[in-house]
Amino acid sequence: MEQKRKRRWRWIAWGSTTIVAVYLGASWWFARSLVYPARTDAVAPNEFTVERLDDRTPLWVREAGPAPQVAFVFVHGLKGSTHQWIDAAEDLSQEGIPSVAPAMPGHAGSPHEAVGFGPHESRIVAATAAWARERWPGAKIVLCGVSMGGAACWLAAQRDPNVADAIVTESAFAQLDSAIDEWFSRGLGKLGLNVFAPTRWMANRMAGIDPSTVRPVDGARTWRRPCLVLHAGNDRLLSRQNGEQLAKAAGVELQVIPGAEHAQGYAADRAAYRDRLLELARTIR
46-175+214-284: what fold? Predict the structure, then answer.
């Protein structure tokens, strides 16, 4: 009897250890997939040229004729790519507006392996804006980013208020720590925060960031130039509250894109989105 009891406890201990090991292993894998997302090949269309920043970050450049008055810097988000901005770049080029789209850290083409969740991306945005000013002297620079790319635009403006002449963001998070709460509680509520706590802790350390210090809303609050704050109407990743916070901080009205999924506003309503960008460009010329 005693031997059977000991055997049973050994099985319980072994089973519990296995469950914990699998749980932590799955948490590590999930965290790593967020910080080091799978990369896909990125080939620029023929109409684009590929340049590079000093750190070897690739830039997809769409020219639009000599002496432009306005140029756009297009910034993709987490698990996005420069491909996302091809249509926008083409549309603006038809209006004499050139653009450049950098690859974000951790994504196809980038020399940086890990996602930075905002701070690192903001430095790439600032470097790209400086590159654009040199490429197109005299042109007003517009930063245009979606999701984490939009957050990076506000963070770049927080670091340097003169980084650009106007900003457009779509479905960007206002505060990273709150956004992470949203991501991990989606569908599970508070249970999700507990279930994914190890994933969150591991991802923070892999990326080397403190989410409580990543606050794009502070950049929006100090911005004193033209801007548009957009939010996808059918965004299931980030709540509209993020857009409302950013719009309020920047002193503008939030514009919702009906029926659009997260970071897919241009695809959802290409004509209306293009017109918004062109109208903003006219105001800063």
Answer: Rossmann fold (3.40.50)
